[in-house]
Amino acid sequence: MLAVRNVTLAFGPKVIQHDLSFDVRRGSIFALMGGSGCGKSTVLKSLIGLLRPRAGRILVDSEDYWAASEARRTAIGRRFGVLFQSGALWSSLTVGENVALPLQMFTRLPATAIRRLVELKLALVGMEHAIDQFPSDISGGMKKRAGLARALAMDPDVLFFDEPSAGLDPITSSRLDDLILNLRDGLGATIVIVSHELPSLFAIADDGIFLDAQTRTAIAHGAPAALRDTCPDPQVEAFMRRERPEALAATGASPKGVSQ
Amino acid sequence: MTVSIIAGNNRFVSDTHAPVDRLEPATRTASAPAWQLNQANGRPVLALSGDWMAQSGRVPPFPPDALRGIAKGDLLAFDISGVGQWDSGLVAFLWDAKRTATAAGIGIAGDTLPPSARTLLGLLPGRVAPPGPPPRRRFEPLAWLGGATIDLLAETGTLSTLLGGTAKGGFLALIGRARMRPVDLLDNIRDAGPAALTIIGVVNFLLGAIFAFVGAVQLQRFAADIYVANLVGLALVREMSAVITAIVMAGRTGGAYAARIATMQGNEEIDALQVIGIPTEDYILLPSILALVLTMPLLYLYGCLIGMIGGGVVAVSMLNVTAAGYIQQILGAVPFSQFLFGFGKTVAFAIFIGVTSCRIGLKAGRSAADVGTAATRAVVTGIVGVIALDSLFAVIATIFDF
């Protein structure tokens, strides 16, 4: 579905990640993992078309995304649904209008059909009661779910989630995990998720990549649960077991790649 | 009830479509979605056929009375063997059916649906609480008047408190005990002062030139060319330079203050200041208002000078006036007291613009739209208020024969 080939990302002279290569299989839930500041969100930005890579190619269904024309990129991007970190709902529109806007802009559906789809998408995320409320009047968890409904508006093939469970309590967070799984199974969508919430990563992701802030590239590939159990890299192991690398070093593992 | 019963016999309508997986590319033309309510083994079956794509706009509504003939407690089953491609359009239709069925006390047997559709249908509630009636707006003039009065009084109170707090902060700053950081004040002064020199200069130069043009036409008839200096000088110093400088600063700096403070409000920055115990007056209002009060009178004097030059350029090039004559005439025409009058007005305008735009920013809501509203309101309030204040000054000056 998505293929990333030798991608290097940089802001000016500052290289964020270099020589990234990975594949996202259709129907999988792919996790972009790594500590704070390693560039996970930056990688996501380049996937959804907000940041052009310095080098390398990003293929969407074997079509080079960044080599395509602006119009073509928009057309490809219409198959994407993005849930931003804090929902990024348009604050001047009600929750319902937020979900309706992409449908109004990109389809010729009559208002009643749009209203019906909006109600459906909101009901899928359990937000049908908040259709006429403004984003400023709802809680953080509700904003996330409303953002998810908006991401689903156009029946996307690929869904991108930036820190879906950040700022949510464990119960809400695990409900959101279930919802993501259900939606994947129900919609048949491919999901790319940026997160460092371990419980939710283990629960939903079936493939992934671990980015390192020091070496500025990927240091491990695989499902989070498999990485936790089998990855030899002490960085990854420490992350997955939620221990500090020093603590692991004291018990015998070599603290490779850790500098203070 | 099992799959075989439904998909097999006793169907009143037979389908020619084979079941197609939804991921199959659309190689054939889409067929219109259709549905029919049948009976299979004495049970109701909703048979669907065609392509159910939401964005085709052809997904039919589910009539609320479609299930009327079905007894309470029955199970509604589905036959989707005729369905080609589908997405949330199908799910929307199934959800309508589910809600209608639930309302009529009919159960749903979803085991013949594709697993993914069944998953989605499972997420959807059978009953949706109808949205509450919209709040009714009644015409109650007395209540409106009372509310408006209370608002006005409260607003006056808040503004006075802000002004008082800022004045107190300003006094403390004078004796060197304010909790205002000098760097904030300097930043604000740079933004409000030197950065505004160009626009104030251009506007006042053109203003002086316009006055000279207008005056020239009239004064030439009486061979009183030289008096164009009196006209330009008095008009600029007494009224126009002060008002125009204030209007430009209301648009430029007042709007910026309101937008900045409203954005801080949205980011919970104001809340953070309050929790830490840094008074908003000291940290935000004082440097902003003080910067305006310090720079605007200077900008006014600068505006007067540039305006006179603008008038001079027109006078010398169009009229029978020499540069030296113009300067000589203007020096005699504008007494120092007129400068004091304009200067004092500018200080009042600065305080007014600073306090109102900061207040509007603090009062703003937390969304992006609210920031826009706050900036607009600050500019409009600033411009209208400056002109209203100016007319007040004009009345006072007339009464005291100044």
Could you please describe the fold and organization of this structure?
The complex is a heterodimer of chains A (260) and B (402). Helix content of chain A is 38%, strand content 23%. Chain A has 260 residues and is an alpha/beta fold. Chain A has a 6-stranded mixed sheet. In chain A, strands 2-1-4-5 form a 4-stranded antiparallel sheet, with helices on one face. The termini of chain A are far apart. Chain B is of the alpha/beta class. Chain B has 2 domains: 3-123, 2-Layer Sandwich (Transcription Regulator spoIIAA); 161-399, no CATH class. Chain B contains 12 helices and 4 strands; from the N terminus they run αβββαβαααααααααα. The A-B interface holds A 90-92, 107-110, 112-113, 116-117, 119-121, 123-124, 126, 128-129, 131-132, 134-136, 152, 154-155, 179, 182-183, 185-188 and B 22-23, 54-55, 57, 59, 61, 87-89, 91-92, 95-96, 115-117, 119-120, 122-125, 128-129, 131, 365-370.
Features:
heterodimer, A: about 260 residues, alpha/beta, Rossmann fold, 6-stranded mixed beta sheet, about 25% strand, globular, disordered C terminus, B: about 400 residues, Transcription Regulator spoIIAA, 2 domains, 4-stranded mixed beta sheet, disordered N terminus
